[in-house]
Write a structure and sequence with these properties.
Methane Monooxygenase Hydroxylase, Chain G, domain 1; 3 helices; mainly alpha
């Protein structure tokens, strides 16, 4: 366990960040799952911009790598194009 005051603070901060990142990641995964499950094209196009924005924010916050964000976005667009 940490003995220094600054190290204890760093442990607290990293726990907060970890919980926040887990929340954002899980929320984004659920949004992707919902988007891919929907069958209406108009709703899908509207939701697509929200999901892409969520993925970009994850990459910006370094929760996921920027290349993974690009791969996710292209995969979602391909799946939606195949359905439509």
């Amino acid at each position: 366990m940490a003995n220094h005051k600054a190290t204890k603070k760093d442990v607290r901060q990293s726990e907060k960040r970890r919980e926040r990142n887990r929340y954002y990641g899980k929320t984004t995964r659920n949004a992707i799952r919902t988007l891919l499950a929907s069958s209406e094209k108009a709703v899908s196009q509207e939701e697509l911009s929200k999901v892409v924005s969520m993925i970009d924010k994850l990459a910006k916050r370094n929760v996921i790598h920027k290349n993974k964000a690009g791969n996710l976005k292209s995969g979602i667009v391909k799946r939606l194009a195949a359905v439509a």
